[in-house]
Each structure stands twice: as structure tokens, then as C-alpha cells.
Design brief:
Blueprint: E1 4-5, E2 15-16, H1 18-30, E3 34-36, H2 38-46, E4 55-57, E5 59-61, H3 66-78, E6 82-86, H4 99-106, E7 110-114, H5 127-145, E8 151-153, H6 161-169, E9 174-176, H7 204-212, H8 215-218
Parallel strand pairs: 1-2, 3-4, 5-6, 6-7, 8-9
Length: 225
């Protein structure tokens, strides 16, 4: 799981520099990892099929413009699929992707998922607003792209049973959390846990630990909300 891809002063949890993102992608390529699309992971999981060893899925949250400026070229260089979860109402605003950029990437190996409309913490919203954030974002994205947007990412990772039901009812095939949720086996495709990567993940031993699966044995899971 990535967010910003940019060079900044100091350290910020949600940011990785283009240099370090490329280092991560080169590590995956050099160590023989299978980079699956989010769709492939969901389909394999739903079918009860085995996910190939050394498999990863690359995801980005929030739809920042630097995903197009910095990450997109790196992903193309290595031929890796990825999914960007975008908050539909923030597209075409300062610092975020434009619809033109989103359309270009959607036609070139990048899936576009929903990250709600306004990137608000869904468990805090009234039921009707939860519905509109989930249903409305899918509708808006699909209207702009002319293709399905099949997957959802919970803003800040927060969800509950009602929110999951709304996601299913809206027609999404799966949803991404963070390290929130109760399913430690990652078999529930509507609360798939992810591991955050950033600028502190620069040493090969760190990358190995996070990518090996053992990392999940030691990190603390959080309540869904």
C-alpha cells in the first residue's frame, strides 16, 4: 500500500520518494515476485485457489497527482499492474489526479478503484451519507471512465458490517482495508489487509520481512473502526 510518491523534506508516513519506489519495484523484479492485479487476487481468493508463492499486489490510496507524475512511469517501466483508489469528488482539484490522467492510466495497466467520494471516515457518517459515498463514487468514476470500477478501499481503513454490506450492494467485487479487521487469514475479499510501504523501507532485509508474509505475524491488527 502506497499513498504519495514524491520528494519531501523530512519523513512522512504516507510518502515514498520516486527513487525508493523504483528501488522497491526493482527488488520485486530482481527477486522473482509475481505482481498480481487486485482483480486476480480477488478472483483467486473467491475461488479458493492457491495464490502463487512470492506474489504481491500493488495499491495506491487517495489519488494524488504524483501517482501519475512519478509512479505511473515506474510501473510502466517494470510492466507491473497496480490499482489506484481515488476519491471521486477530489479528482480535478489541486494536488489530485485529473480525469484525463485517470483515463490514460486506466487504459494502460492501472485499475481505478473507489476510495469514496470525499475521503471521509465512513463509520462516523449517517447511514445515508455512507451509502452516497460508496454508491455515488462508483457511479461517478464509471461515468467518467466508461468502464467498471469494481473495487473499493475504505478511507483510513475504517468499516463495519453495515458499510461492508453497502459495498457489496453497490456492486463492488471486493474491498481493501489497511491492517484493520478481524480476518487474519485475508480470505474475506471485502476486508483485504495491506502492508504500508514508504521511505523507511530502503534496506533489503526490511523489504524481505514485509514481503515474506512473516511481517503479519508481528504487526498489531486493529479493530475495524
Amino acid at each position: 500500500m502506497y499513498h504519495n510518491v514524491d520528494v519531501i523534506d523530512g519523513y512522512r508516513t504516507n510518502t515514498v520518494s520516486p527513487e525508493n519506489l523504483e528501488r522497491h519495484m526493482a527488488y520485486l523484479k530482481g527477486h522473482g515476485f509475481h505482481v498480481l492485479s487486485f482483480d486476480e487476487l480477488v478472483r483467486l481468493t473467491k475461488d479458493g485457489a492457491s495464490v502463487p508463492r512470492k506474489s504481491v499486489v500493488i495499491t495506491f490510496d487517495d489519488g494524488y497527482e504524483d501517482n501519475y507524475v512519478n509512479a505511473y512511469r515506474i510501473l510502466k517501466k517494470y510492466g507491473f499492474p497496480a490499482i489506484i483508489f481515488v476519491p471521486s469528488d477530489l479528482i480535478n482539484t489541486e494536488g489530485y489526479l485529473s480525469w484525463e490522467q485517470v483515463k490514460e492510466m486506466a487504459g494502460n495497466g492501472i485499475s481505478i478503484g473507489s476510495h469514496s467520494r470525499r475521503h471521509l471516515y465512513l463509520p462516523d457518517l449517517p447511514e445515508q451519507e455512507q451509502r452516497e459515498e460508496i454508491f455515488g463514487s462508483k457511479r461517478i468514476i464509471e461515468q467518467h471512465l466508461g468502464r467498471p470500477s469494481d473495487y473499493f478501499s475504505y478511507p483510513i481503513g475504517g468499516f463495519n458490517d453495515q458499510i461492508k454490506q453497502f459495498v457489496k450492494a453497490a456492486g463492488y467485487y471486493g474491498a481493501a482495508a489497511t491492517n484493520r479487521g478481524y480476518d487474519k487469514t485475508n480470505k474475506d475479499v471485502f476486508e483485504l489487509k495491506r502492508i504500508r510501504f514508504g521511505d523507511r523501507d530502503v534496506r533489503n532485509d526490511y523489504l524481505w520481512i514485509k514481503l515474506s508474509g512473516y511481517y503479519n505475524l508481528f504487526r498489531k491488527s486493529k479493530e475495524p473502526y
